[in-house]
Amino acid sequence: MGELEQKLVWESHTKRKAWIVWGFWFAITLLTIYCWVEMNEDTIWFFVYDAPVQAADLIDRMFPPEWLYINKLYKALWDTLNIATLGTLLGVILAFPVAFLAARNTTPSTKFVRPVALFIIASSRSINSLIWALLLVTILGPGILAGIIAIGLRSIGFVAKLLYESIEEINTTSVEAIESTGASRFQTINYAIIPQILPAFLGIMIFRWDINIRESTILGLVGAGGIGLFLSSSMNILAWPQVTLIILVILATVIVSEYLSAKVRRLLI
Amino acid sequence: MLKIEHLKKRYKTGPWVLKDISFEVPDGEIVGLIGPSGAGKSTMIRCVNRLIDPSEGNIQLDGVNLSNLSSSKVREQRRHIGMIFQEYALVERLSVMENVLSGRLGYLPFWRSFLRRYPEKDIDNAFEYLDRVGLIDHANKRADELSGGQRQRVGIARALAQDPRLLLVDEPTASLDPKTSRQIMRLIQSICREKSLSAIINIHDVPLAMQFVDRIIGLQGGEVVFDGKPDELTEDVLTRIYGDEDWTDVKAEDDDLGIDQENDQESEEAA
Amino acid sequence: MRTWERPHYLVPDKRWRIALWIAFFLYLIVGIGSIEVNWLRVYEGLERGGRFVEGFLNPNFTRRAADIYSGIYESLTMTVTSTVVGILLSIPFGMGAARNISPKPIYLFCRSFIAVSRSMQEVIVAIFLVALFGFGAFAGFLTLTYATIGFLGKLLAEEIEEIDKKQLEAIASTGASWLQRMHIAIWPQVMPRMIGLSFYRFDINFRESAVIGIVGAGGIGATLNTSIDRYEYDSAGAVLILIILIVLACEYLSGWIRKWVS
C-alpha cells in the first residue's frame, strides 16, 4: 500500500514539473514571437529582400583587396597593440586593489567597502569599451590616450571579478598561520595570499590582453586611435578594397594574439 | 608562564563553546589537551594567540594580558607564540626557506619582508632550524614538493623561527601516518626540552599524548574535566571525557593499528 | 654565515629575469612615448569630464525619456530574438563543428564559420549588415545572432568533443540512428552547461546591443551616441545607469534560474 501511494505521489510530482517546464518553453516562445513582431515594426522588408543583390554587389566591389595599402597600416597596428597592452596594464593595476576590497575574506568592511567595490566591478563590466571610448573622446579629444583609458576602465571589472573570486577560494589555514606569526595585514597579503593567487592572476591578465587586442581594433571607429581609424576613414570614402584589406589584417592580428595568449597561458600552468 | 583565568567563549548568540576555563602552564611544561570533537580544543588554543577573540576571561603570558589588547599589540605578542597546524598550513607556492623565514614577519617592517631582505642572523637561524628538523637540503624546494611529514617539519621550523616563548600545537599528527606521527611528536618534545619551551598540544590520539606530554587536560563540553599527570588517566577518567563508547573505540584501534579513524571528524571540527 | 636568495620558479635563471624586466621597461618607455597627448585639449576636457561624473551621479531620465524608452525597448526585443534564434542555430553549427560526430567537409565549413564569427567584432559585422539591410533593429538582430552562433557553437562543439566516447559507442551498438544517438547520448551530457551559457550570452547580447546602435543597428546605442555627441552627460548617465541595472538584473535572474534548473 505504502509503495503504491509513493508511486502515485511521485507521478503527480513529475507531472507538475513537466507542466512547469512546458509552460516555461511556451512562455519563451510567446515572448520571442512578440519581440520579433515589435522589433520589426520599422523594418523595411524591401531592403531585406534586396540584401542578396546588395551583398553580391558589395563583394564584387570589395575584391581584390588593395594589398599595397598595408604599408600605411603598420603605425596603426603598433598603436592598436599599445592601446591593448597599456590599457590592460592600467586595468590590472586598478583592478588589483578593487579585487581585494571586493573579496569577502580580505575586505576591510563587508557593509560599506565591499558594495562599493562590487558596484565598480558591475559598472565597468556592463559598459563596453567602445562606449567608454566614445565618452573619453569627447572629454580628452581623439587619440590613443582615450583608447588606453577606455580599455583600462573596461578591464577593471573583468579582472577584478575573476581575481576576487580566486581570492575567496584560497586556503585559509595558510593565512591563519601567517597571521599567527604576528605578521601585519600587508605582510599577510604578501606572504599568504599573493602566492596563492599569482597563477590565476597571470592567467586572467593574459586572457584579458587577448580580448583587449580584439576590442582595440575597433576603438578607432569613434576616434580613439588604432587601426579602426583607418577602417572608418576607408569606409567613409567607400574605398572597399582597402576595407577588405583592413579587415583581413584585423582578423590576422586577432588570430595571432589568441595563439600567443593560449601559448603563454599553457606555459604558466 | 601562561595563565588562563575564567576563559569563556561563544560565537555570536550561539551556545557557550568554552565555559569558565582556568589553568596555568609553567615554563617548560608540555600540556596535552584532549577531548572529543566539539569539546572546544581548537577554540581554546586559538583564543591564546587571539586568532579567535575570547568573550570573557583573562589570558596572561609572562604577565602580559593578551585578552584585551588592540590589534597592533596583538601582533606584537603573537610573535612570541609559535603555532603548528594540523594541515601544516604552509604557503605551498613559496619555497621552504620563505616559509621558515615567514616566522620572522612580526619582527620586520613590510619593505624588508617584501624584498626578502632578511637580517643575516635570521637567515642563519633559519638554516639552523631547518637542520634541526632534518630538512637542510630542501631549503630551496617549493613547499608543495614535500611529503606530509616533511611539511610538518617545516611548520615546526617556522614556529621556531619566531623564537617563541610558547608553542600552540593544533592536532599535529592528524594528517600523518602512525610512524611519522611519533617522529613529529618526539621532535616537538625534544625541541621543547632543549629550549625549555612550554607547549599546549591539541591531540585526539590518547596513547600518543600519554607518551609525549608532561600533563594532560581533558576538555568536555567546554569544561575542564581532568587535569593531571598522564599516568593518572584511568579508564574512569577517559569515560568522563569521551563518554562510554568513544574512548574504548579510540584506544582499541590505536592498540591494534595505531591508525585513528576519527581523524576526519577531528579535522571537521578544526574547520 | 650562510647567504640565501629567494628562488624563482617561473624564470629560474637570473640573467633571463633581468633581460625580461629590461625588455618590459623598454616597451613601457617606447609605448608610453607613442602616446600623443594634446595637453591643452585635455585641460579643456577636464571640465567636461567633471560634468560627466556629475551627470552620472545625478542622471536626467526625463529630457530624452521617449528616446531612452524606445531605445531600451528595442535593445531588449533585439536581445531576446537574437539570443533565441542564435541558440537554435548554434545547435546544428556546434554539432557540425564537433570532430567526433560530423563528416570532414561539414566540420571544416562549420569550424570556419564559427572562427570568423568569433574573430570579428560585432561592430564590424554590424557595419556591413547595416549597409546591406538598411538601418534599424533587423541588422542588429542579424549581427547578434551571428555572434551568438559563433560563441555558443564553439563551446557546444568543445563540450561534444569532450563527452564520454564509451557512452556514444554503447548507444551506437544498440543500432540507434544518428538522430537517436544525438538525442540520447549527447544532449543530456551537454544540456546543463548550455543552459547556463545561454543566459550568459543573453547578458552579452544586451550589452552589445548598446554598442552596435552607434553604427546604426538599432537599440539604445543610438540614443547614447546622440546624447554624448551633444555633451548631454546627464542623459548619457541615465542610459548608462539603465544598462548597468539591466545587466545586473539579468545576472541575478540567470543565477536564480540556473540554481532552479540544477
UniProtKB/TrEMBL annotation, chain B:
Residue limits of the ABC transporter domain? 2-246
Q: What is its main location?
A: membrane
Question: Per the record, what is one GO cellular component?
Answer: plasma membrane
> Keyword annotations for this protein?
ATP-binding, Cell membrane, Membrane, Nucleotide-binding, Translocase, Transport
A Pfam family it matches: ABC_tran
Which superkingdom does the taxonomy of this entry point to? Bacteria
For this chain, one GO molecular function annotation is: ATP hydrolysis activity
What Gene3D superfamilies does its record include?
P-loop containing nucleotide triphosphate hydrolases
Q: Which NCBIfam families match?
A: ABC_phnC (TIGR02315)
Q: Which SUPFAM superfamilies match?
A: P-loop containing nucleoside triphosphate hydrolases (SSF52540)
Q: Where would you find this protein in the cell?
A: Cell inner membrane
- Record's protein name: Phosphonate ABC transporter ATP-binding protein
Renumbered to this chain, region (Disordered) spans 252-271
The UniProt entry lists membrane topology as: Peripheral membrane protein
Does the keyword section mention Translocase? yes
Q: Which PANTHER family match?
A: AMINO ACID IMPORT ATP-BINDING PROTEIN (PTHR43166), PHOSPHONATES IMPORT ATP-BINDING PROTEIN PHNC (PTHR43166:SF6)
| Family to which this protein belongs | Belongs to the ABC transporter superfamily.
**Species name for this entry?**
Marinomonas ushuaiensis DSM 15871
Automatic annotation (TrEMBL), chain C:
The residues that cross the membrane are: 20-40, 83-102, 123-149, 236-257
Record membrane topology: Multi-pass membrane protein
Note the superkingdom of the native organism. Answer: Bacteria
Q: What are the ABC transmembrane type-1 domain coordinates in residue numbering? A: 72-254
- GO molecular function annotation: ABC-type phosphonate transporter activity
* Compartment(s) of residence: Cell membrane
InterPro entries xref list:
MetI-like, MetI-like_sf, PhnE/PtxC
Q: Sorted alphabetically, which NCBIfam families does this protein's record hold?
A: PhnE (TIGR01097)
Q: What is this protein called?
A: Phosphonate ABC transporter permease
